[in-house]
Amino acid sequence: QSDSACFDNALELLVMGGYSLAHAMMLLIPEAWSGNDLMDPKRRDFYEYHAALMEPWDGPAAVAFTDGRQIGATLDRNGLRPARYLITDDGLVVMASEMGVLDIPEEKIVKKWRLQPGKMFLIDMEQGRIIDDAELKAALASAHPYREWLEKTQIRLDELPPAVGTMAPDEAVLLDRQQAFGYTQEDLKFLLTPMVVTGQEAVGSMGADNPPAVLSNRSRHLSNYFKQNFAQVTNPPIDPIREEIVMSLVSLIGPRPNLLGLESGGENMRLEVKQPVLTNEDLEKIRQIEDSSGGAFRTCTLDITYPAADGAEGMEGALERLCQAAEQAVLEGYNILILSDRKMDADNLAIPALLATSAVHHHLIRKGLRTESGLVVETGAALEVHHFATLAGYGAEAVNPYLAFETIEAMLPKLPEKLDFREAQKRYIKAVGKGLFKVMSKMGISTYQSYCGAQIFDAVGLSTEFVEKYFTGTATTIEGIGLEEVSEEAVRWHRNAYGDAFIYRKHLDVGGDYAWRVRGEDHVWTPDTIAKLQHAVRGDDFATYEEFARQVNEQSERLLTLRGLMEFKWADEPIPLEEVEPASEIVKRFATGAMSFGSISYEAHSTLARAMNAIGGKSNTGEGGEEPERFNPLPDGSPNPERSAIKQVASGRFGVTTEYLVNADDIQIKMAQGAKPGEGGQLPGHKVNKQIARVRHSTPGVGLISPPPHHDIYSIEDLAQLIHDLKNVNPKARISVKLVSEVGVGTVAAGVSKAHADHVTIAGYDGGTGASPLTSTKHAGSMWEIGLAETHQTLVLNRLRSRICVQVDGGMRTGRDVAIGALLGADEFGFATAPLIAEGCIMMRKCHLNTCPVGVATQDPELRKRFMGKPEHVINYFFFVAEELRRIMAKLGFRTVNEMIGQMDRLDMRKAVDHWKARGLDYSRILTKPEAAPGDAVYNTDEQDHGLDQALDNRLIEQAAPALEKGEAVQIEVDI
């Protein structure tokens, strides 16, 4: 059932259980109280007490409620839904999303106001009056001695007496443990060091071009099979920086009090931690809490290791025993369970902490015992933000990353700045906390309590059977591995640590996940593929391009992408190549990605524009605006060759002016970006020179971060309004909406079509970026193959496909990619990293540092002199891609691209995949061809009706024509 129905059920339960209507609403949708020092102390005590009963139901929501005697409304803590009301002199109250929905004479209105964040408005029909927020909440806050109850029951972890922590092992043991939990040299260099030095999450650039976890030949952390969900269009992400007052990392550990025990407030103890990352000392306090809590809390440590001699086959039995032990411990009265892998050594293998946590969490839910106990995880497997996020999402109320702390202590002498361990540990915990804020806020969630156990993830490459048993309720579109392969990954790491391999005796594995390394993880962009592509485009050499394409496309030896495992069903009778649509027409479907002037240099940006204008394709400004000199016509009246056809409107609105909008062929509303969905664009201050600042209407040297949400788009209706407004500004331009692939994106795309967008872009997670937190680059959003297939299927089934143009982008490199994109439902295709490489990029991944050595992604005047790219290089690349596509089309029997759009039945999963993880993959869901209604086209054929003739702007212009054209006096009278 819907979330609204779930909420209604919860409210009904509380009211029938004895709560007043207003009391129940305050419990379910509380104000942001934890960061508000100005709140009345009694009201604060009320909220603090009730926080242990139930986590907040975050919005955005404006909720009206009634029980027949009282009727009211409240707004959630974020206040992002509009709710305005008026009261008339004869006692009529009207509340709606905006004023003016009913035609009420102004003289009858005695009050106009709006609901504010967390505030409540209540009409008591029996008393015949309106009770305002302050009076209502003051009465409820004074109804019980909440402060007295809190003093009796509340235990704060930081107020407990200190306990002795566990000592760090020597370096030899540390190396073994790091290897057994999959640590790499990259983890220490790119993730841990920046977190310890800056107290911030590590930032990188250029996106992810390595294989998804299920296609990797290497063992991968189990959390890598889960992609973070994020909000787009239907509800907004939150800005965790500017709206920090509504965010909270407070976690309550232990059993839940009786939700319906209104009078028993002083009976159930509660353990509160300010944030969920526990130091070793914190964990020891919890272990010894029975004495300091007078026996109210009893802790049981459950070992999540099992004998290594049992191998991969032993993990299922170990999980069964663990779940039984957890159930028994709760039945025996233990109300805090610590899942610990500290006993992992040469003879004992650790169950992946995420798997153990989720297995216990769901087992206790099935047994009806989950609210009787808290779950704390003591693990060596938690290092980066995504590890903590997945543990939280599957039930961990707090996490002790003991191995990360031991690693930090060992790293201290090598750090660029002299730090003591306490300070380094503090910065790391701060960085994880900030990262968790960002992950939670992507989905519009404000508090850790609401995120804990919420499972806001999609599984990619895990079998339904495995997910249903251990991660119940998680969506999985691509069937894949099960417990056997997950166990094998853990065994391989353990073998690296305690086996005889000489290479691992003194050093960690190189990793190669974030940048290409010899003996590291596979990447699409290697020194060889980059060199081949650049050689091909500079020498106009199609044969060399074919070598490049073969290396990228041929994935029998090294699997890199989901589409690498697809194969074409060739036509029985191929058609002659000369009958296929010419390359000069195909390239008009191509666009370059949204790379802003600022993230890349003027030279790189304008070269892309010149190339795309020359071939009839489109270049995209990105979210940084465009210099007016570039879109104004040349002195002879001809179009400016440096004009970008696609003008982007992002949440920061940098450089967006009326002049900018009217000089566009497409106007793209960026709701999300593939490399970091749910976050705003980021331009470091050292890249903001005077020229960039002028174009963006900002200040030189000041870093620019767009807010995660558009502050005028909190729903699909708001998006429809912006689409309409932009269409009024420039009626000739197509209005596009950029979304990112995730499970459910098809429904959003259908809404976008109904909102009258002309064009929608589905971006894959593996697209490039100029600067992004590494956690987002790797773990947010999914592959475009998943989102594109779902979008096409949903639009066809809802008879919307013909009215909207669908573009796909994110990691498009070759004609084969384009062919698969078309067969899965795309009309147009976006490229970004590949054209950048064609004009000189060598994938140094230094974009965010302003030190690009080839002048592509830098504003440094000296480095920009090294830019050697020419429009001809980019033009050659696109024609090579089109030519490769034509050859595939001929073999498939298609004469035009339109014929092949959406023909999913011409794709199949490659047979006999000989790969220890990929052999279980099943693409049947994304290769299912939807049945179109008779007469419906499955590609874009129609134009949207924007109703511009009804727009007030156009009526005013029409009526004002005599004044505008002849200078005559005009008087216009219209209702507004």
TrEMBL record:
Family: Belongs to the glutamate synthase family.
Keyword Nucleotide-binding carried by entry: no
PANTHER family, per the entry: GLUTAMATE SYNTHASE [NADPH] SMALL CHAIN
NCBIfam families: PRK11750.1
One Pfam family in the UniProt entry: Glu_synthase
Signal peptide: none
PROSITE patterns given in the database record: GATASE_TYPE_2
Gene name of this polypeptide: gltB
Alphabetical list of InterPro entries matching this protein: Aldolase_TIM, GATase_2_dom, Glu_synth_centr_N, Glu_synthdom, Glutamate_Synthase, Ntn_hydrolases_N
Residues covered by region (Disordered): 615-643
GO biological process, one term: glutamate biosynthetic process
A GO term, aspect molecular function: glutamate synthase (NADPH) activity
Enzyme Commission identifier(s): 1.4.1.13
Superkingdom of origin organism: Bacteria
Domain Glutamine amidotransferase type-2, first and last residues per copy: 1-126
Keywords for this protein: Oxidoreductase
Protein name: Glutamate synthase large subunit
